[in-house]
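Model it.
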Amino acid sequence: MRVLVTGAAGMIGSFVSKKMIAQGYDVIGIDCKDSSFENDRYQHEVVDLAEFDSVKSVFDKYDIDRVVHFAALAHTAEERDLSWNRYYMINVECAKNVFVAASEKRVPILQISTVDVYGFTKGIVSTKTPLYPVTNYGKSKAMAETELKEICGMYGNRYSIFRLSPVYTPDIKRDIQKRYYLKSPNIAYMIGDGIEYEVLNIVNAAKAVIEWTKSEPQNEIKIIKDPKRMNTKAYLSREVKEGRAKVVLWFPKWMVKLGYSVIHGVLGDNSKTYLLNKAVSPLRSE
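Modeled.
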């Protein structure tokens, strides 16, 4: 099987590509930057996804069986431009080019989305829960999901959507460290007896993607997470033992909830209060 992976030079895309190759897949990697990875089963194409003809040329060049669309603008600290226009261009317009090019060839697509599309949604969410994104990242990913459904419907193509929980690796834990660090690796914090969060080990993310390639997509949506939640108390205990988290600040849960209620009452639903909301009402999914 030959799989096209967009964002193949990124953290998740590169990891998944290598796992696929180890299992005998041929991988066509697309990214806006070059890759140092070399393998007989890997072909890398430097492509600007904003240019439809360039994207289409890759589909014309190779016989592709599946597409996994990782390429996106998230919320990394290294990014200087996190304006809505840039989120929209990369996460929606560029994604549409991939969706159309793949659908013209009737190549099934896996769109990698995020649980951030749920925003302030309370209670236990499912794939049928109405979306309420509040961040530029969440809004653009929700829009991309809509575009995927419409484009695949127009061409009679098949798709799947994976809404990933925050992804981490043994070495890169930026997305989950926000839940227990004020300033990594020295100043940490804990709320009450610790909070449990739904997260996703990159190994489990790769397993889910590879399993997807082995079946016929049925236009379904899935929430992808680890079987067990991350417990901040347990994580901080290990961080302290290993010489990190030199200062651990403790906040009573009632105090955090009260503070959140006051701030949310003044500012309403926005990207800043959304971060606080994660500590007060962490996402729970079926």
